[in-house]
Amino acid sequence: MEYVNHDHNCYWTRRRRTRLTRHGRCLSGAGIPVAVLQHAASALDMALKVRPMPDNEYNDEVRIGDYVGYLHDACFMSFEEPSAELEAALLSGVCALLAGYLGRESAPIDASEAIRTRLREGWSVEIQAIPREASLRIRAFPAEAGWWTRAFSPRLTLRADRV
């Protein structure tokens, strides 16, 4: 897997952090630049189209093939009913982004599975790349959790030398 290089600069990308959340059939995320969506579209051999929505100055419509989602501030994405294939491609893109943050060709081999198993209904999974430790920190917590619960939720650390 090739890493994702991005040129987006925001709170999430400066901290090398990404969050995925599942609400019902919706999959949303923060810290997911357009480069991740392009990676997912390429993995599915589909075209990515991003266009402004004329009636909404804050969101862009995103199309990956027939899948329709939304993008806000070029790093907050949402897809209403992603297929298992789209979800896997987005997760692959997130792992490629994290690999780029770590300065590696790929993320730790077990990162994708660790994220997937924690991403369940009503939960958020937050992943932070720690380059100086060559690791990823993964936390899962209820999507509506307050800062205390998020801050003290159990962490899983994956070393990047396990590729």
Please tag this protein with its features.
single chain; 163 residues; alpha+beta; 9-stranded antiparallel sheet; 5 helices; globular
Description:
It is a single chain. With 163 residues, the chain is of the alpha+beta class. It has one domain (11-159). It is built from five helices and nine strands. It has helices spanning 11-14, 34-43, 84-102, 111-118, 147-151, and strands spanning 17-23, 26-30, 48-53, 56-64, 67-72, 76-79, 123-130, 135-142, 155-159. A nine-stranded antiparallel β-sheet has the order 3-4-5-6-2-1-7-8-9. Helix 2 packs across helix 3. The longest helix is centred in the middle third of the chain and has 19 residues, at 84-102. It is globular, with a radius of gyration of 15 Å. The protein starts with 10 loop residues before the first helix and ends with a strand.
